[in-house]
Each structure stands twice: as C-alpha cells, then as structure tokens.
Amino acid sequence: MTRYIFITGGVISGLGKGIVTASIGRILQAKGFKVTAIKIDPYLNYDAGTLRPTEHGEVWVTEDGGEIDQDLGHYERFMDITLTKDHNITSGKIYFNVISKERRGEYLGQTVQPIPHVTDEIKGWIKRVADKSKVDFLLVEIGGVVGDYENILFLEAARQLNIENPGRVLFVHVAYLPVPRTIGEMKTKPVQHSVKRLREIGIQPDFIIARSEYELDDVRRKKIALYCNVKEEYIISDPDLELVYELPIIFDKEGLGDKILEKFGLSSRPTHLKRWRSFVDALKNSRGIISIAIVGKYFATGKYSLPDAYVSVIEAIRHACAHFKVKPDLHYINAEMFEKDPRLVSSLSMFDGIIVPGGFGSKGVEGKILAIKYARENKIPFLGLCYGFQLSVVEYARNVCGLEGANTTEIDLDTPHPVVDLLPEQKKIIEESRFGGSMRLGGHKVLIKEGTLAYELYEKTVIVERFRHRYEINPEYVPVLEEKGFIFSGESEDGIKQLGELPREAHPYFIGSQFHPEFTSRPLKPNPLFRGLVEAGLKRRRMKRR
Ligand code: GLN
Fold first, then answer.
1. pLDDT for 474-518, tens place per residue?
2. Which among 147, 200, 194 is positioned nearest to 173, based on CA atoms?
3. Domain map (residue ranges) of the chain
4. Per CATH, is 3-277 categorized as 3.40.50.720?
C-alpha cells in the first residue's frame, strides 16, 4: 500500500522544496523502493503553459504533453522516472473539475463548498495517482509557503488524508533560517512561527528540513526541537550547496532515508548511491573545463538576471559534462547585445560550444541569428534547440541559399521566404486565440536517417523526444536548403523535418532539433545531442591549446 510524504514550505518561497522532494525520492529509490511524486501549484492557471518564463522559470514538458512547473523536471531527473500531467495539480485543475461536476449535476441538491467538495477532489486526485502508479511512496510537494491563502485547502486535504490513513502519512516541513548580517547569527524564530501556522491547521511536521546558507548547529537544533515539537534527530540540516545533485548524498549522510522508514515502522536498509556519487564527484572535482555560451533572451527580471528559464538546458549540459568528467563553465548571453553592436558577436570565439535555446516572439531573434552565423562560419560546435533550430534554418536560407529576407512567419508575416511557418493545425488555433495548452506538445516519434550525425549520436533510427512548438520547417523550402548542403537528418512520421545538421566536412558539430532534448536528459543518461556538443567542444578546446 502506498505511503504518502507531504512536503511543505515555511518562511519564504524559492527554498528548493522541489530539490528536497526529488532528493528524498532519490534516497528512497536507492533503498530499493518504488517512488513517484506530485507537485501541487496553488495558482489558478490550469497549467504552466501560459506563464511568463522570466517570472516562473522554464515550462517543463511531460511525455504525455503536459506543460508543467519545472519541479517536475527535478523529479524526473533525480529519480529517472517519466511523469504525466496527472503529477501536477493546480487550483485551476481542481476548481475546473468541481465546477464541471456541479454543472453536470453530480452534486445535485448539495451546497458545493471548499470543504468537503474541493478537498475531496484534491484527495481523490492524489489517491488516483497512488493507485495508478502502484508505488511504495508518493511524495506530494505543496507549492508556496504555509500561511498563504492559496494553498490552505491543499493543506487541509493533506490533514484529512493523514487522519484517514493512520501510520501511512508523513509531513516534511522545509523552512528557512536566516542569518542577518547585522546580527551574525542564525535565527530560528521564523521557523518556529511557520511550524506554529502548520499546527494551527492541524498538521504536526514529522521532519524539519532546516534550509539556510550554513549548516545547522546544535544550539539551534535544540531550540527548534523544543519549540516545534520535533525530536532533534528529525531536524535535518540543509545548507546551500554548490550543486543540487549533492543533496541526496547529504540527506543520506544524515540518515534521512532510514529515519523516514523508522517513522513508518519499516526496517532500515542500505542506500545504493554509488553511481550517483561518482556523477556528483565528476561535476565537483573534475579538473577539466568546457566553456559553453547560452545565447538566449529570458534572463532579466527587473534588476536581476535569472537563468531559471533555461534550467533544463543547463542541467542537460551538466549531465553531458559529468559523462566526460569535465566541469561546465556556463555563460549566459543576452542575444539583444549582438543586435545593438554586431561586432560583439566575435566574442563568441572564446567559447568551446554555443547553444541557442528555445524561445518565442521577436525579441533577440536577429541577435540569435548573428550568433548562429558566427558559429557556422567559425566552426564552433553548435546546438540549436527548437527556436534555435528554426533560426539556424533561417540563417542558412538567408546567408547560404541567398534567400534574402527569409524568416519565420512567427515574426514576419510578409517575409518573401517563409522558411519556417505555422503548423497547419496551429493556424486555426491562432485564429481563434485558443492559446492555453494548444501547441504541438509532448513526446513524438522522430525517424532518423542513417549515415548522419544524428544517427551517429542516437545510434538508432526511431527515437521519441518531447516537443513544444507551433511552427515548423516549411516543406516547400526543404529542396533548396538541401541542395545547398543543409542535411535534414530526422523527420516525423508525416515527413516534417525535425533534425537538421551540416555535413561533417563543413563543420565539426552543427546540429539542431525541433524537439527539446533537454527534457529527456538524465544525470546518468545524458541526452545524445548534448553529449555530442560537449565532446566536440572538448576537441575544439584541445586544438586551441596546441
Ligand atoms: N516559437 C517557436 C515555435 O513556436 C519555437 C518554440 C520553442 O522554442 N519552444 O515553434
């Protein structure tokens, strides 16, 4: 029977509850258990597809086409599992179901209320996932912070689940301990208050994860134990780490896995984390370095720049680097810089590899095209992801095929050469302004042509990768692009081109994909396209040294 572990947050958001959840999952798996996880996002959007990337970070795409909070990406990466849309619950989804049921007359005669109707809907959803996935442990991360208006009904549902399933529910509270510079001491009061809020709701945490810049000391541990009603050994220190992947190792060192088992009345087991440890060791302690530039646009929010919008791309680079036992030296470059001063593009020569990631709209597009041209002409290993791939085709059309003014119709409807154009099924959707959840989404088959770089990397002729787009390579322009040397090395079953590359005689590594390979990259199984980029980048680095 499935056991439930709820993870709640205290004091501030952005503490890395997702990483904590994923790490707990990883250590339980390393003890031989079957684990899965649900992320609860209390916002009213139905899913994350319509959220602004600079505000909310990247949108994670599941195999079944869900557009979801990036925490699901952490779960999939840390636990190497494939999740579905059902593993993300939003208030939007819950209310949508409740109101639909009410309209269908399913509550006939009743007054429909937050309790029990909304809470029942939440519990029903969680139990459905538990039944379907048949896991030993279902982790449920409740987004936001205890005390928010938004998540109160989710906490209430968790409280009820605990009462209805005695001995099968645990609560882990992740709370922040500030160290104010003027005081110079780690303060526990905010944690005490957030646990108090939790207990007012009727939830007594079993574990407290003490998130702070520094390690928790004994004095503070005792204090939290006393005020929060949690035994000292169930208070786990979680200091800032150089690498998020270290957290399962830290948790294991603190014996968190066995303590969880003990709380559930299960006997302790050894943790098998050997390969994970060598992965972390490769990223932390390798001497070799590779420098990679991500030329994008979603970096700035107000005064702060946040590479969060590209988190999966960054993680995929890390996985590939660990494979070759080198450390990544990542540079985030705002493409608009090249638009303001095109001469700056030559600064890209200092990098071992260049990535132009996915994106939407016209901002930074010409800058990205300049970067792609530079990578192509100067033989710098290049990987184009989705928009990056489409723009590499635009660049080739303009500068090699001589199709002046070639463009994607996403930004220029009147272009004389629409080399990238709306997918036929998307035309109607756009006309009707049905933007939510209407892109071509999720896992689709790609057929790879033998004898190409793509085939060399994937070593197979059929792959499944994840997509999120509205536009495609216009089939009318494929012949002229091919005639001028561009190779389309992969296509979908309906013949639309999904992978493009330059011949190896022309360029050491130039490849782009309509799909997002970053979504299938895993710590111990890097995605082939990223692996290829790092390998080619390391060759370039060695040659530059000589
Ligand atoms: N804007 C492009 C499209 O919709 C690319 C999308 C992306 O990069 N995810 O096709």
1. 999 999 999 999 999 999 999 999 999 999 999 999 999 999 999
2. 194
3. 3-277, 286-545
4. no
Q: Domain 286-545: which CATH class?
A: alpha beta
How many angstroms separate the CA atoms of 144 and 174, rounded?
Answer: 11
Mean confidence (pLDDT) of the chain: 92
Crossing angle of the two packed helices 91-103 and 119-133, in degrees rounded to 10: 110
Best probe residue, ligand 1, of 297, 390, 430, 496 (max atoms within 8 Å of C-beta) = 390
Q: Is 70:53 a contact under the CB 8 Å cutoff?
A: no
pTM score, whole prediction = 0.91
DSSP state of 233: G
**Pocket of ligand 1, beta carbon within 6 A:** 358-360, 386-387, 410, 468-471
- Whose CA is closest to atom 3 on ligand 1? 469
Would the pLDDT of 307 be above 70?
A: no
Using alpha carbons only, how large is the chain's radius of gyration in Å? Answer: 25
Residue 92, amino acid: G
92-113 pLDDT per residue, tens:
999 999 999 999 999 988 999 9
Measured from the Cβ of residue 535, the count of other Cβ atoms closer than 10 Å reads 18
Are 3-277 and 286-545 the same fold in CATH?
A: yes
Atom of ligand 1 nearest to the CA of 410: 1
Beta carbons within 10 angstroms of residue 536's beta carbon? 24
DSSP annotation of 180: -
pLDDT-derived band at 55, boundaries 50, 70, 90:
low
What's the chain's length in residues? Answer: 546
Tokens of 140: 């449920």
